[in-house]
Amino acid sequence: MTAECIxxxxxxxxxxxxxDYRRDIDxxxxxxxxxxxxxxxxxWEALLRRWLGRGxxxxxxxxxxVYADTHLEQLVAFDGIDERDLFVVIGHDITLFAxxxxxxxxxxxTVDFLNGVVIDAGGTNGEARFSDGEQTLATTLKxx
Length: 144
Hints:
alpha+beta; 3-stranded antiparallel β-sheet
């Protein structure tokens, strides 16, 4: 539904197509029972901070840097759009937390509704931007 609202708001004449860029990104949580036990023991925000700090055992959750890098590689290499298309990816908050941590070395555990990272890429360089009520972050990406 979020993707449809964005498409209807930005696409000329309300025409847009929905595609699935996610090809080979494995599940983030590897052991659901251990994950839930840890979340119940320390709380959601503490779990996120521990995970982003690479303190959650790898048998419970994937490494946040590897998870973010996999998403970034898939996003910048996606070939299913035309040059003039607006490519909007809808993801879970936890994916955004990993991307912001990886791109900007900042640990965030909450985001505003419909907030995200904007990536403008072409050729061998790109730029990623994130902004919320407290900070504006930007970084240059090397794509090749």
